[in-house]
């Protein structure tokens, strides 16, 4: 059975060119880039090249890039550094819909005694910038606001938000793990101080990420160790993956237009077909300010895990914000923050596409899913009641 | 991804006895949309008092659907008395086992069966009685105690896996632990005199007002009692205390010590942001 992979916000396939580029550094060129000998030095040169490639996709300088092991490490490093370099400030601002890498860290910091403001979002997953501005105080050390939401794809106005923070002398960090490679980002055009990105969301392997640190920003390392990354991140470099990340950024920059035309059209085709063919479903999140590859759709009165496992029978991979798939017994914190009703939240499915998806695949999913929803609704004790409401035009 | 047995998958993909029996002798719905799963069970008896038809409708995940499907197969042909003996473990066993985190699906099956039998007998549904312990999922003390006893559960996490209780905000964890301890000590009488919750809250309030607040207010700070959950005293700091880095130490060394001395020796003070 062929796999139809529509879960690219979870992770992506490694691009064949990227795999090819990294393999020699797992086999023949195993030198340590810190070594004095030519054998290690040639590896160091490739790491430098990768740093330039990563910098380029976000319009940064190479020395502003610190390689890390993942997006989560970048987020932890950024936020902890901001607090460590502003010891007098005890307040941080973030949002209710952050990825757990920021969300859980913020909760931990609140336990440690920091004052935490988690900004709410409206029913479309959007922030209120005025409310945000009011939350900034002289005691605020850092704002951490995701560039784009991993579950809904909704894009936050981070550049505007960063300016507001900057004017008050507050550091601004953004988790751009879902945004880099999907939408244009140019750090020369904004005043964001720190930005996290991750390799495996843009066709590099898992286990590598980067933190952008604007030149001149005071910094306190998270991993203390050797002099790697100019003493900003101890630990021998994950050379093959760093090289892979560099090339993946290069490729993503080249495909940015494809992402925003071809992939976006496929996403819209899938979304419109499902909205058209399945009664009582809706898109979660702002459909305009949104990543081109993401669609989060709720199917009322059915449960997400059941939908996913039925899709799995056809080789279709997606994910869900339902309680049963989260392991936490409650539906996704993002959908709850948006006030999505329980009847909808439990039946939410996220489709996230990539440049490797084809129209044929999208058509197959559009043809398969309506039948699955119908089957599951036939099992649901709530469906008839809901259906009757719909027939009366109250739905 | 969950590790489901082939039998769970088979019952999920090809559920048996879907629907509703017409003019049922027993019928019940348990669970809710908010909780993420619900089960409607109906059955009809033949002239010899045996269950001749049983049908279900489920809103829920794969194991909820499979558990309900299995349940209908298990009770068909049984008398009501025989069916009433089915436990959640029997349902899980019929399916070749369920992942620990999904055991609550088997418990939902047993609850629906009991409620449908109660309906047939004209009795009130058993789960409607008793004090609610877990507000998030509406789980009663009785349900928790029963599941702990029947499945020999030892930890809060296990109770959550089996009943969902404690899987939301977590405020009831202490109460769940007390139930586990009580059931596992099998009725051993605890001798120390126990304060009722209302007595405890009253005494905490009085102690804060009399012994603690005046001293804090002298320094421009204040303290507000937010809630008392079991032995956890949740407070919020105000005024100068809220921005004072040392307020955590004050809470532990002064407030907690005072409350332990004057109210109850096991109290723990926790600061909440509000």
Describe this structure in words.
The complex is a heterodimer of chains A (395) and B (274). By secondary structure, chain A is an alpha/beta fold. Chain A has 15 helices and 13 strands. In chain A, α3 (38-57) packs parallel to α8 (239-254). Mean pLDDT of chain A is 95; it is low at 390-395. Chain B is α+β, with helices and mostly antiparallel strands. Chain B has ten helices and eight strands. Chain B has helices at 6-13, 62-75, 80-83, 88-94, 103-121, 141-151, 156-163, 173-184, 197-218, 247-262, and strands at 26-32, 37-45, 51-59, 132-134, 139-140, 221-229, 232-239, 268-271. In chain B, a hairpin with a 4-residue loop joins β1 (26-32) and β2. The model of chain B has no long low-confidence stretch (mean pLDDT 87). The interface between A and B is medium-sized, with 32 and 35 residues.
Descriptive terms for the model:
heterodimer; A: 395 residues; alpha/beta; Aspartate Aminotransferase, domain 2; 2 domains; seven-stranded mixed β-sheet; 13 strands; globular; disordered C terminus; B: 274 residues; alpha+beta; Sufe protein. Chain: A; Arc Repressor Mutant, subunit A; 3 domains; 8 strands
Task: Please provide a brief summary of the model.
The complex is a heterodimer of chains A (395) and B (274). Chain A has 395 residues and is α/β, with parallel strands linked by helices.
């Amino acid at each position: 059975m062929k796999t139809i992979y529509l879960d690219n916000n979870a992770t992506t396939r490694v691009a064949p060119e990227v795999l090819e580029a990294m393999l020699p550094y797992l086999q023949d060129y195993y030198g340590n880039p810190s070594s004095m000998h030519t054998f290690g030095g040639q590896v160091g040169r490739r790491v430098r090249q990768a740093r330039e490639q990563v910098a380029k996709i976000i319009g940064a300088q190479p020395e502003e890039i610190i390689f890390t092991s993942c997006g989560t490490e970048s987020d932890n490093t950024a936020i902890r550094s901001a607090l460590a370099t502003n010891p007098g400030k005890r307040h941080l601002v973030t949002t209710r819909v952050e990825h757990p890498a920021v969300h859980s860290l913020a909760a931990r910091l609140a336990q440690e005694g920091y004052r935490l403001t988690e900004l709410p979002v409206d029913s479309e997953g959007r922030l209120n910038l005025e409310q945000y501005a009011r939350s900034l105080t002289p005691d605020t050390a850092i704002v951490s606001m995701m560039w784009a939401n991993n579950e809904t794809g909704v894009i936050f106005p981070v550049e505007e938000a960063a300016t507001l923070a900057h004017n008050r002398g507050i550091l601004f960090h953004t988790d751009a793990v879902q945004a880099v490679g999907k939408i244009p980002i140019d750090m020369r055009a904004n005043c964001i101080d720190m930005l996290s990105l991750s390799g495996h969301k843009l066709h590099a392997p898992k286990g590598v990420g980067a933190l952008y640190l604007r030149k001149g920003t005071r910094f306190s390392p998270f991993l203390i160790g050797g002099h790697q990354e100019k003493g900003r991140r101890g630990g021998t470099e994950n050379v093959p993956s760093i090289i892979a990340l560099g090339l993946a950024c290069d490729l993503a920059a080249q495909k940015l237009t494809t992402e925003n035309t071809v992939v976006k059209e496929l996403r819209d085709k899938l979304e419109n077909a499902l909205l058209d063919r399945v009664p009582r479903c809706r898109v979660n999140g702002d459909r305009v300010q949104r990543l081109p590859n993401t669609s989060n759709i709720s199917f009322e009165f059915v449960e997400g895990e059941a939908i996913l496992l039925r899709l799995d029978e056809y080789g279709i991979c997606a994910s869900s914000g339902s309680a049963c798939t989260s392991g936490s017994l409650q539906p996704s914190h993002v959908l709850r923050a948006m006030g999505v009703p329980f009847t909808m939240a439990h039946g939410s499915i996220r489709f996230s596409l990539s440049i490797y998806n084809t129209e044929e695949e999208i058509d197959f999913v559009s043809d398969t899913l309506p039948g699955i929803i119908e089957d599951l609704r036939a099992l649901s004790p709530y469906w008839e009641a809901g259906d009757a409401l719909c027939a009366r035009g109250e739905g | 991804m969950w590790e489901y047995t082939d039998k769970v998958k088979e019952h999920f993909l090809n559920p048996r006895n879907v629907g509703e029996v017409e003019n049922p002798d027993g019928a019940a719905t348990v669970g809710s949309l908010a909780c993420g799963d619900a089960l409607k069970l109906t059955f009809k008896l033949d002239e010899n008092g045996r269950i001749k038809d049983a049908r279900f409708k489920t809103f829920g995940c794969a194991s909820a659907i499979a558990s309900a499907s299995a349940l209908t197969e298990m009770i068909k042909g049984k008398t009501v008395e025989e069916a009433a003996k089915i436990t959640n473990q029997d349902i899980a066993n019929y399916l070749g086992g369920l992942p620990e985190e999904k055991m609550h699906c088997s418990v939902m099956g047993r609850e629906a069966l009991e409620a449908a039998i109660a309906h047939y007998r004209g009795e009130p549904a058993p789960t409607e009685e008793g004090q609610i312990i877990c507000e998030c999922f509406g789980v009663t003390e009785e349900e928790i105690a029963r599941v702990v006893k029947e499945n020999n559960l030892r930890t809060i996490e296990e109770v959550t896996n089996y009943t969902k209780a404690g899987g939301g905000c977590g405020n009831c964890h202490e109460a769940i632990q007390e139930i586990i301890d009580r059931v596992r000590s099998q009725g051993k009488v605890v001798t120390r005199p126990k304060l009722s919750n209302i007595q405890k809250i009253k005494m905490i309030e009085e102690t804060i007002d009399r012994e603690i607040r005046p001293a804090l207010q002298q320094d421009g700070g204040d303290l507000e009692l937010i809630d008392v959950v079991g032995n956890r005293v949740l407070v919020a700091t105000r005024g100068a205390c809220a921005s004072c880095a040392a307020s955590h130490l004050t809470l532990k060394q002064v407030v907690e010590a005072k409350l332990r001395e004057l109210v109850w020796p096991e109290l723990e003070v926790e600061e909440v942001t509000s």
